Amino acid sequence: MATELAIKGGPRIVPDGMVKGWPPITQQDRDALLAVLDSGHLHGTSAPQALALQKEWAEYCGAKHCLVTNSGTSAIHMALAAARVEPGDEVIVPAFTYWSTAAAVLHQNAIPIFVDIDPRTFTMAPDLVEAAITDRTRALLPVDIHGMPCDYDPIMEIARRRGLVVIADACQSHGASYKGKRTGSIAHATAFSTNRSKNLSSGEGGLYTTDNDEYYEVASRMREFGEVVLPDQTREYNAFSLGWMYRSLEWTNAFCRSQLTRLEQYNAARREFAEYLTEQLAGIPGFDGPYTPPGVVPAYFSYIVRFRPEQAGLDAPMDRFKRAMIAALRAEGVNLGQWQTRPVPGQDVFQKRVGYGKGCPWTCRWGREATYRGEDYPRTIEFIANHSYLAGVYPPNTMELMKLYIEGFKKVADNAKKVLDAAS
Ligand SMILES: Cc1ncc(COP(=O)(O)O)c(C=O)c1O
């Protein structure tokens, strides 16, 4: 192994151009997509690709019903509306998520109430949920962040006891399982995103699952202007309530179905890579991989790396250590990046409460002027401060790349003091 660091002009470990992007696209995907153009069906909730995808995804998850939609955000919104979350109702959301989880609550004129995360899995902490429940709470909205299923047993138990609905944001956890059950079949309703980056990708899109017949019917009307559209496309042109245009496209559905035939294979590769990296990082001072609780099989949507200056024997503040290590690793071709920069309630939309204008939904008749303080979520702040995301931990990348990544981590760790000095 070359000993000179790449930041000092030495050769990099991972050759330029070696890391491939996601998702892998095959001839099967191309054929599936092009066949739609000749099929005579380009869209529609009863079009053949939409119906087939819904059936296949429901079967894969072990859910009774599935609806395909045009984004993960719309799938969460459909789930909230179908569960009869109404203006001013409160929905409990983790402070660490992509903010669209909470945006969907605002779209329903409801109020997001944030709780902090579990310090090991980084999903919503069940022990903090109970204290956040008020007489206005209608739903819990946990998130399977990084592809890690949240701790569903205590969350479902709290919901049962307090008469609440659980809507899972599984936008990052396709194919993950919790105590033998796949996400999509655990909560009362579940939303998936199939945007470009996701384990199951259609480019842009979403999937909604539930076992509840009534939720399914309301969600399907919501997806199409609040109307009832029969399978033969007959319409009464009568909206039963407010609805949206959340339909998907047939070539998107066909592409998604084709990708779905390889989801298991792709997830198996992600797990193999992630487990290898975690095992190896445990022996490299300064870095750690993620923790996985027993009974849980994550989908490894993202691979997170924790920075440990104290393990490296360096008395450096976290931000300085992390910045210096990332710069040195990137120079070696080990690309680490930041995903979020603050707890969601610390974002301007919550700080300034700029929903629909005029203070709505917080100051509308049924609302409550909840206050949002980013500093109230110390575990989220700590997670963001001491973690980073490693790119390319998915196929078509191979074990060869993971081995080079580990070489890169070792090289930087062996020279940690030099890296820190170079940074300052
Ligand atoms: C956790 C989480 N929730 C919701 C979403 C929203 O999904 P979409 O971008 O498909 O609307 C995403 C997508 O990035 C996500 O990662």
Describe the structure.
The protein is an alpha/beta fold and 424 residues long. It folds into two domains: 6-23 and 263-340 and 381-423, Alpha-Beta Complex (Aspartate Aminotransferase, domain 1), CATH 3.90.1150; 27-261, Type I PLP-dependent aspartate aminotransferase-like (Major domain) (Aspartate Aminotransferase, domain 2, 3-Layer(aba) Sandwich). It has helices at 27-37, 48-61, 72-82, 100-107, 126-132, 152-162, 213-222, 250-260, 263-281, 318-331, 348-351, 378-386, 399-414, 416-423, and strands at 65-69, 90-94, 111-115, 137-140, 165-169, 177-178, 181-182, 189-193, 206-210, 227-229, 235-239, 287-288, 296-297, 303-307, 336-337, 387-390. The strands form four sheets. The chain has a seven-stranded mixed beta sheet with strand order 1-9-8-5-4-2-3, sandwiched between helices. β4, α6 (152-162) and β5 form a beta-alpha-beta unit. It starts with 26 loop residues before the first helix and ends with a helix. It binds pyridoxal-5'-phosphate.
Find the count of extended strands (DSSP E, 2+ residues). Answer: 16
Overall shape: globular
Name the bound molecules.
Answer: pyridoxal-5'-phosphate
User: Would you tell me the overall average pLDDT?
Assistant: 96
Computed structural class: alpha/beta
Q: What would you give as the CATH superfamily of the largest domain?
A: Type I PLP-dependent aspartate aminotransferase-like (Major domain)
Radius of gyration: 23 Å
Helix count, DSSP H or I runs of 4 or more residues: 14
Poorly predicted sequence stretches spanning 5 or more consecutive residues: none
Q: What profile does the largest beta sheet have? A: 7 strands, mixed
Q: Summarize the helix and strand pattern as letters.
A: HHEHEHEHEHEEEEEHEEHHEEEHEHHEHH
Termini distance? 26 Å
Q: What is the CATH topology descriptor of the largest domain? A: Aspartate Aminotransferase, domain 2
What is the C-level CATH assignment of the largest domain?
Answer: Alpha Beta
Strand content: 5-15%
Query: Which sequence of strands runs across the widest sheet?
Result: 1-9-8-5-4-2-3
Number of domains: 2
> Could you say what the CATH architecture of the largest domain is?
3-Layer(aba) Sandwich
What is the percent of helical residues? 25-40%
